[in-house]
Amino acid sequence: MIPALTPELILYATAIGLTTIGLAGVVLSVHLFRMVLSLVIAEAGVNLMLVLAGYRWDAVAPILTSLGEQPAMVDPVPQAMVLTAIVIGVGVQALAVSILIRIRQRYATLDRWEVAERMDADIAATAGTPRDVSQEAPLGERPLPPIPAKRVDPSGSES
Amino acid sequence: MGNLTGLLFAGGLGFMLLAIAGGLDFGAPPMLIGSAIQAQAPAETGATNIVTSVVLGYRAIDTLGELSILFAAAASAGLVLGRRHTSAGTQTEGGFILRTGGGILFPLMMTIGFYIIFHGHLTPGGGFQGGVILAAAFFLPLLARPGAKLHHSTLSLIEGFAGASFILVGLLALAEGKAFLQPLLIQDTLGQLFSAGTLPLLYLAVGLKVGAELASLLSRLAQTEASQ
Amino acid sequence: MNGALALTIALPLLGAFLLPVLMRVSVAFGVWIGPAILAYGCWILGDLWLTGSMQPFSVALGGFAPPLGINLYADTLALLFALAAQLLGLIFWPFKLDQDSARRQALMLLLVAASTGLALSGDLFNLYVFYELTAVATFGLVAASGTSAAYAATIRYLILSGIGSVLTLFGIALIYGQTGTLNLAHLAQLAPEQLSNELGLAAFLSLLIGIGVKAELFPVNTWVPEVYATASSRLSAFLAGLVSKLALLIILRLLLLVFHQPEAAQVILILGILGVVSGELAAWRAKEMRRMLAFSSIGQLGVLFIAMALPDGQGMLAVLALALHHLVIKSGLFMLADGWGGALQRLRGSAAASPLAAGLFVLFSLSLVGMPPLPGFWAKFTLITELAGQTEPLYLMGLTVFLLATVVEAAYLFRVAAIIYQSAPQERRPDEIPKAGGLSLATAGLFGAGLIATTLLIAPVGDRLQTIAAQAQDVDLYINTVFPATPGASQ
To answer: Quick check: is A108 in a domain?
Structure first.
């Protein structure tokens, strides 16, 4: 039973598809920057979903063009919400990228599991405990490969 | 194997969500508060762009929160990336077209940016859109001449006072015995530039704040990138 | 006077915007701005709390009556948590002065403002905005410690919280597409007809997982041990003590007002049980103080979710009592961990070095486990009686898990207490024994004093909590407060 391919279905499928692709990307990626990009995709999907929540076929943008009788207008509230959500997304992404720059300078990698391992090692070293085996990669006590001597950037190692 | 499971899971999730969202009445939303706002907004806020009256009137506190989020992100990025910037000697200067074009475009972009901000209550556009154009205008010279520096102290001054004036306009309403962030000075001249009372002022604050915030974020990222 | 409520959000934001500029002009002046604003906020809220008629009221922001505009809803519960946000912000104020202090203090002001907003706001999307503000300010403050591990923990938290906000927005889109409104009171009116279906359930699940990230809900709490181990103790105390409770409060409000499906409560109950099991067992295995506290906090939040799942808000009193109790205890314990961080084995002999801290630790542990007559006992007792009164097997399973978790909790807390009271090993010099002292010990002492005061005044405090819970439970009161004249006809 395949439903008819209406514009309605296409738009909803796009919104939900983008959200799903983004979320799947976050879960499946091993590179931290790709995870952030996947989040951007997912956010685009939900923003489309929000706009759709107030959309009408027979209506114009909610701006008065003349006094007197008005044509039907789309719901202005979701548009305002999307504006807010987009700006919030931009702020979070910029912050994410700046943290990623620092991590890359310190750990010389952006691989998700390697960063997690090094973080666990760092936390354990600060606390002075034997390292807990990582929850996500229970492969026993893997010795960490040494950070390559030739760093990607010599200048930004410490701020 | 793990990837396959993940993909199957994601696909199933997508289908489930689609099935659920199919229950929504598309193209004919309930518009419970939407139509009420459409009916009342021109009289209550004096703006012909109803999205503007939602952003700066009905949901002004959301906008304030969103400005705070941008501010928090910029401040956090500042904390993370630090203050000291090594000079960007390694990056090559932009080509002739970029440098000359940047010089020509800068005043034009400033004009357009401010135009969009000031007409936010009349036409599509407003503080966010205009602010982004302003930020781009300031970022362009940075692309053309990587050595150029933005004045971070000036930017943070604009950041601070633009955000503060948004709140102060809101507090002014409170001081007059009205509610916090209530629009003031509404005149009965719908469609004119000076029609929406304090809304254009709020949008000016939003535009300056967004512009300064984004410019400082971008230049910070660019300068750290340059130091690599 | 009620209009001044908006000031408790607006003034911290104003202070945060201006702080970096003012600090450049005069540091000596700038350092007092934040505490002064928060103290004023405490004064406003305390005044409303003491002189008000204890009747809930609603403030329409921008003068636009809800549901068109956004309103702040202040019942005694919301006021209590808003007051707690400002007060804890003052207690955990980042006093440290260095070149970054302006930014750090600005972020702290933003965090407090957002927390206050979370407690007071009566609009779904507005809650989302404040929720994101809390998140971004937290990222900045965690990353501010500047270690590599802190950056890694922040980015992992940021990505998880990004998933959360995507889901939250999705849930909001579903709700708005179905009902056409965002105001919680308005939604409460429309929910029985429009949201008691699969769509409503899906929206609830999206919101639950999305907001659950901050509430340390079971599957989305992997950030908790990492962030609490890398952030400063003061920040961890604020996050574990207050922010998690606020996220929980939002879920509770949504459950009470909008989503009445039995499935919703069951999902919360199951996730709560899983949270208790995973949290307490991980805490038992932990070899480090802060990690132990972080996992134990996951377990405690799981208990709160179990209490929340009781039908028709019967668990309201238990949720309230447990949440406030955990707020005090966890804040105190994290302050002790400030001096006692690191491996548990290093703590041997520290009772002799700082007897007051050891005494406080034992006091907090006893109350957390639920030793009468400490307040923890009464909080847990309320939950046990409510759970035992249920007939459904899932609730009884929750009760069993809860009782077993208490035993595990006692095991790991008293193990630490035993280590503390052991004599120091011979080979260690006295200055190697970690000492808890200074400001953090004083703060922990403050929480300990509060706990003892509550123990002495348990009867009036209990009565007061009962009125608060009854008021928060009353859906009709909520709706009638937001739409005073014409209930039901709010278009």
So the answer is: yes
